[in-house]
Amino acid sequence: QVQLVESGGGLVQAGNSLTLSCAASGGTFSSYGMGWFRQTPGKEREVVAVISRFRGNTDYADSVKGRFTIARDNAKNALYLQMNSLKPEDTAVYYCAADVPRDFYSASRRAYEYDYWGQGTQVTVSS
Asked: How far apart are CA 26 and CA 3, in angstroms?
């Protein structure tokens, strides 16, 4: 069973950048599809970006395409989210999640398919 711990959240001004990290332990990190999700009060958790177990194939929410980049380092058991050109609407709690995938070359965009979650890190973007 993998444990996930996010870090790197904070308060930034619109237009600036932030990098989130997710440290994994207790499992074989390379065996999981991984994803970043976010949630604001009163709303459902939504996908931000996902990355496959093999080949690092990625998929992004339309709202972050071209601004955010997901990456994984299997040697370091780490997942990253580089966020550029941040907007106030990016304000949310960001969660790292791990999935035991049926497909090795793609990762699910559905939060309910993810088996393990971190505690979340707050990102606040001021205008």
From this structure: 6
